Q: What sequence folds into this?
């Protein structure tokens, strides 16, 4: 009589810890890759005139609000047997999840970074060049001047990645292994499963973790927004 | 060590700013370019700073035509030149980091990374040359302050110091004092004189005739779209060749 109660005890720490770990691993990796990809694009779009610039800008803006299920669908197709990446065997893997969150986060990080770097004055960029800086040096100066805005961009991208359900559910499959730890189960996909199966305590706990993560990120964004000091 | 514009022309789109302009600067001399606002003083300085290629004519340094060189070789020449703009345009960092910037970009990437880390952990106490340059403009004490906390005059003095810090052979000053009060103006002018005594060649664009008279060895008058007069300061002011020069100096030419 007691056994089911123990098994059903809501807080199975290994299970919960592994879910949080998978979530953070996938989202942090996706955001790191998106940032490396997005910053050069933001600098290029912000300071170079080229044909199709308005097109690129509207792609970025559209991408910022793109539905995550659709992204998941496209990535799932890409890694499936019929898709171009089919030979890599990526269906229901964290790699596929990183790919889809990369696609979701990159437009956000690019868009917000673009606004940040565009607000760096040409005067300041000219000064770096005048002191013997190369174009690469000018790019670094621009990133440094826009550092708070760029940090905000990265955090916004992380916020989008960590809290989305659609794409990780589709490409990851919400899998837990037989020993009861997460393989591709994230906080969000676990919440929907646990809630559907009536295990509200677990769902609530994971929900609380997610809210704390998102609040933390927001607090950092607000802090950065009010910080106007340069470092010594 | 002569920087020279030879018969240069520059246009923005179809709009020719000037044509057939020649000007040179030798070590240890101050050349002032005077002329009304919008005549092309900044444009000419940008050409001399090797920022932009002229649309016609030649910019030479030690008789080497700069724009026939590869970008890499051109950088070597560009790094012998410094420029100060009308706005201070300081980086959002400390005064010291601003003053050190020119020295940093000349270092290897590993050295730069080392300094960057030392700065982040607060272990860097600054480069001697940068602090000396700050001393020249009377701001050594402010080295650890945020650049954003400086007054306009102080900021411009830092802008001057950071161009001086890496020991350029030529300094191009684009109306460096036009937004400043007399005291800060005098400090910048003193620093210019000190730079000249260190054998730096200086070209200063100004619309302040008196400033040109105070500090320049030679004066060029940019008017219309050419240099209508170029010569020793005293001669240009006392006995101009061109009637328009006299009118401009006397303030009769209003633009
Ligand atoms: N980047 C630019 N694009 C187009 N026109 C410019 C640009 N910079 C300057 N001009 C024009 O070129 C002329 C000369 O400008 P400038 O060199 O700044 O004159 P000054 O420094 O003597 O006031 C002005 O008519 C100005 O409007
Ligand atoms: Mg000007």
A:
């Amino acid at each position: 009589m007691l056994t089911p109660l123990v098994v059903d005890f809501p807080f199975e720490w290994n299970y919960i810890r592994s879910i949080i770990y998978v979530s953070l691993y996938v989202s942090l990796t996706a955001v790191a890759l998106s940032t490396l990809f997005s910053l050069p694009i933001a600098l290029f779009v912000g300071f170079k005139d080229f044909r199709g610039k308005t097109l690129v800008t509207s792609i970025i803006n559209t991408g910022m609000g793109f539905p995550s299920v659709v992204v998941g669908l496209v990535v799932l197709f890409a890694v499936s047997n019929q898709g171009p990446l089919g030979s890599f065997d990526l269906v229901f893997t964290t790699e596929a999840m990183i790919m889809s969150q990369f696609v979701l986060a990159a437009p956000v990080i690019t868009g917000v970074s673009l606004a940040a770097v565009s607000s760096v004055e040409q005067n300041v960029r000219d000064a770096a060049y005048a002191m013997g800086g190369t174009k690469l040096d000018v790019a670094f100066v621009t990133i440094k001047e826009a550092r708070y805005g760029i940090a905000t961009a990265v955090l916004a991208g992380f916020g989008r990645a960590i809290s989305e359900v659609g794409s990780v559910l589709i490409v990851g499959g919400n899998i837990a292994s037989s020993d009861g730890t997460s393989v591709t189960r994230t906080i969000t996909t676990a919440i929907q499963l646990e809630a559907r199966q009536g295990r509200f305590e677990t769902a609530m706990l994971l929900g609380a973790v997610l809210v704390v993560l998102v609040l933390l990120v927001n607090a950092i964004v607000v802090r950065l927004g009010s910080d106007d000091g340069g470092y010594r | 060590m002569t920087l020279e514009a030879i018969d240069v022309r520059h246009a923005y789109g179809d709009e020719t700013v000037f044509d057939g302009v020649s000007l040179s600067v030798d070590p240890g001399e101050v050349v002032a370019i005077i002329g009304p606002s919008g005549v092309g003083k900044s444009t000419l300085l940008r050409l001399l700073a090797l920022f932009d290629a002229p649309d016609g004519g030649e910019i030479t340094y030690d008789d080497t035509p700069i724009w026939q060189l590869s970008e890499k070789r051109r950088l070597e020449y560009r790094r012998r030149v410094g420029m100060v703009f009308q706005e201070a345009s300081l980086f959002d960092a400390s005064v010291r980091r601003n003053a050190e910037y020119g020295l940093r970009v000349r270092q290897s990437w590993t050295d730069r990374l080392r300094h960057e880390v030392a700065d982040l952990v607060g272990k860097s106490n600054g480069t001697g040359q940068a602090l000396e340059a700050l001393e020249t403009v009377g701001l050594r004490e402010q080295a650890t302050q945020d650049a954003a906390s400086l007054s306009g005059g102080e900021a411009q003095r830092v802008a001057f110091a950071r161009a001086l810090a890496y020991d350029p052979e030529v300094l191009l000053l684009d109306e460096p004092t036009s937004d400043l009060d007399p005291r800060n103006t005098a400090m910048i002018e003193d620093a210019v004189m000190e730079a000249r005594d260190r054998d730096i060649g200086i070209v200063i664009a100004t619309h302040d005739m008196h400033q040109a008279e105070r500090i320049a060895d030679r004066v060029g008058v940019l008017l219309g779209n050419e240099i209508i007069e170029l010569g020793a300061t005293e001669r240009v002011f006392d006995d101009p060749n061109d009637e328009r020069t006299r009118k401009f100096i006397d303030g009769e030419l209003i633009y």
Observations:
- Chain B touches chain A at residues 49, 51, 75, 78-79, 82-85, 87, 89-94, 96-97, 101-102, 105-106, 119-120, 122, 144, 146-148, 159, 162-163, 166 (CB under 8 Å).
